[in-house]
């Protein structure tokens, strides 16, 4: 009964997602960024006035208001406004940074010796309170750009972005009279102490926060806003004749834009770099040899969608699949579906063509199935771990989740390639791995008992591969193609002669 109710729920949610009303609702979401659009308009006005003209005295409030709008924009676009705990954390962060600024103005710790003017607002204890908004805005902007998988690396990435931002901001603040340094620093009178303090503060606060992962559309908007700020301050520096700052800003924009493009989802440049890194360093570090049995390509008639079903027993499965299909496949032709919980931990897989599925969230499940259907209709091959979780390679039976059957039901015919992955230790210190690809099996997408058929085929192929490796390894691997063969020896290998 529970299974029937769940299927009815899925069908109802699928109907909702496909309905025109649902589509219109999704399209209207971007119109809710009112503060963001207001900030963009204010930024354009400010850019024209500050770069090509002068700001009238009647708009003396414009710069403090700019900081307020920037902060509200970043709070809105990052979704922080919908999370009260996170919102108060950022407000506390802004106030804490204000206190540090006051301490630095009076005691030269931690940023150095400097003093504020009244351009950004009337100083309170020597510091305009609008600095709270500046810290919040800049931090969220840099924090939102970070995409590293672990909390430590995300914090490190955030700190690097914020220091790059300050390399442009601080000199322009001097040119525009926001504040004045009373030190003989190496960079326009700004001491190294200032940049180190920015780095440490941003790193520590980002380390305290949970990992942040924005949607791809939001990430693009955050990146554009970061670039807009760099462009604004670089242009102001050029207006003052300080072309070194302008050049640094342009370099940040060019390199940052290139890296963002390279790290964007499914980008060929990033996958090429990662494939080289993995084949030359990562895999040889942990594996002795990796073999492929069978043809990785699926030779089927045009218009027949192709699904690769892979048993899932190790963290390495996704990387080995990536290495196998990137070996000679057309870029962007293959995509990999991973469980949402695993992809949250290993976000870099998104850059290699992975996308998530949440089996326990009906709405998300329906949207993912529609996404897979679209990719298959476009001729892309989709790799799926049908077990839905990592299970030991000798664990039986190999349960197949219903999501695969739901995908098959959307087509009259589906070509299935079963992929078995088996890991084992030999006479060497490091692991060996074998990937066996079956010939494509074209099945009726609407056949009954699909899960049972898929489970039996996947399990029997893995059992056969295991037996061949255990009892007939030499003859089995004579027919295999070598994906990786480690040439160098470790110290311990020398004792195995």
Write up this protein.
Residues 306-424 form the Phospholipid/glycerol acyltransferase domain. Keywords: Acyltransferase, Membrane, Transferase, Transmembrane, Transmembrane helix. It comes from Listeria grayi (Listeria murrayi). The model is unreliable at 16-31 (pLDDT under 50). Strands 5, 6, 7, 8, 9, 10, 11, 12 and 13 form a nine-stranded mixed sheet that branches. The protein is 55% helix and 13% strand. It has 497 residues and is of the alpha/beta class. The protein is built from 16 helices and 13 strands. The protein has three domains: 1-31; 33-263, no CATH class; 276-496, Glycerol-3-phosphate (1)-acyltransferase.
Q: Summary?
A:
The protein has helices spanning 2-18, 20-27, 34-52, 62-77, 84-107, 131-145, 151-176, 192-208, 216-239, 243-263, 268-286, 317-326, 340-345, 362-377, 402-408, 450-478, and strands spanning 114-116, 123-124, 127-128, 179-181, 287-293, 306-310, 334-339, 354-357, 381-384, 413-425, 431-437, 441-444, 481-485. The protein is α/β, with parallel strands linked by helices and 497 residues long.
């Amino acid at each position: 009964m529970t299974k029937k109710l769940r299927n009815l729920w899925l069908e109802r949610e699928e109907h909702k997602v496909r309905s025109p009303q649902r589509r219109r609702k999704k399209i209207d979401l971007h119109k809710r960024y009112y503060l963001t659009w207001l900030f963009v308009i204010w930024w354009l006005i400010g850019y024209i006035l500050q770069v090509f003209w002068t700001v009238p005295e009647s708009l003396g409030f414009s710069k403090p208001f700019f900081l307020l709008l920037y902060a509200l924009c970043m709070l809105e676009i990052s979704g922080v406004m919908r999370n009260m705990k996170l919102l108060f954390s950022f407000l506390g962060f802004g106030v804490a940074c204000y206190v540090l600024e006051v301490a630095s103005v009076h005691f030269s710790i931690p940023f150095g010796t400097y003093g504020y003017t009244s351009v950004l607002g009337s100083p309170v204890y020597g510091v305009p309170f609008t600095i709270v908004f500046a810290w919040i805005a800049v931090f969220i902007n840099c924090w939102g750009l970070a995409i590293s998988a672990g909390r430590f690396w995300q914090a490190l990435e955030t700190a690097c972005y914020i220091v790059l931002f300050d390399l442009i901001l601080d000199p322009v603040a001097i040119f525009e009279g926001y504040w004045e340094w009373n030190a003989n620093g190496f960079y326009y009178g700004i001491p190294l102490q200032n940049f180190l303090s920015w780095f440490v503060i941003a790193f520590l606060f980002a380390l305290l926060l949970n990992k942040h992962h924005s949607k791809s559309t939001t990430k693009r908007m955050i990146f554009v806003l970061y670039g807009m700020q760099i462009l604004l301050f670089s242009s102001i520096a050029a207006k003052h004749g300080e072309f070194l700052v302008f050049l640094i800003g342009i370099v940040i924009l060019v390199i940052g834009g290139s890296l963002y493009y390279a790290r964007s989802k499914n980008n060929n440049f990033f996958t090429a770099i990662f494939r080289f890194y993995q084949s030359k360093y990562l895999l040889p570090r942990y594996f002795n040899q990796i073999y492929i049995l069978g043809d990785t390509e699926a030779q089927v008639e045009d218009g027949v969608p192709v699904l690769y079903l892979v048993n899932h027993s190790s963290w390495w499965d996704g990387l080995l699949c990536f290495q196998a299909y990137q070996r000679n496949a057309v870029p962007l032709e293959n995509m990999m579906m991973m469980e949402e919980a695993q992809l949250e931990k290993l976000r870099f897989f998104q850059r290699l063509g992975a996308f998530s599925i949440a089996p326990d969230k009906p709405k998300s499940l329906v949207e993912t199935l529609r996404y897979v259907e679209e990719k298959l209709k476009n001729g892309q091959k989709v790799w799926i771990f049908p077990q839905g979780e990592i299970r030991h390679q000798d664990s039986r039976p190999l349960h197949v989740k219903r999501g695969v059957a739901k995908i098959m039901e959307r087509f009259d015919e589906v070509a299935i390639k079963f992929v078995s992955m088996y890991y084992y230790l030999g006479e060497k210190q490091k692991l060996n791995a074998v990937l066996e690809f079956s010939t494509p099996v074209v099945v009726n997408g609407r056949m009954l008992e699909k899960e049972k058929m898929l489970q039996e085929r996947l399990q029997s192929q893995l059992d056969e591969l295991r037996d061949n490796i255990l009892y007939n390894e030499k003859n089995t691997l004579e027919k295999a193609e070598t994906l990786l063969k480690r040439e160098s020896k470790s110290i311990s290998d020398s004792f195995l002669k």
